[in-house]
Amino acid sequence: MARTYFVYIIASDTRELYIGVTNDLERRLAEHRLGQDRESYSARHETKHLVYYEMTPSVVSAIHREKRLKRLSRVRKLRLIERMNPAWKDLADFSA
């Protein structure tokens, strides 16, 4: 069975960013939003809004892409997000 892997960026209301990789984006976003591990980066910075994602069938390419994104300057990360999501809407908020 083929899997899909996601490289994603979530943001706080103040645009603090977190970059991650997962094979279940819905579950992973729920984990971030629950903030059960209060010591985690995403809980401390309240990064809960999905603002960017990419999909790939390869876990290796997803991990490589995550590492490349993390090395980008903040300005380049913001440009990448704004190309896909200029209004910074929560892409996982299906009620909006």
Explain what the structure shows.
By secondary structure, this protein is of the alpha+beta class. The protein is 41% helix and 22% strand. The chain contains 4 helices and 3 strands, in the order ββααβαα. It has a 3-stranded antiparallel sheet with strand order 2-1-3, sandwiched between helices.
How many strand elements?
3
Give me the number of helical elements: 4
Helical percentage: 40-55%
Global outline: globular
The strand order across the widest sheet is 2-1-3
| Overall SS class | alpha+beta
Q: Runs with pLDDT <50, length 5+?
A: none
Radius of gyration: 13 Å
Q: What string, H for helix and E for strand, traces the elements in order?
A: EEHHEHH
What would the average pLDDT be, to the nearest integer? 92
Largest sheet: 3 strands, antiparallel
User: How many angstroms does the end-to-end distance come to?
Assistant: 33 Å
- What share of the residues does DSSP label as strand, in percent? 15-25%
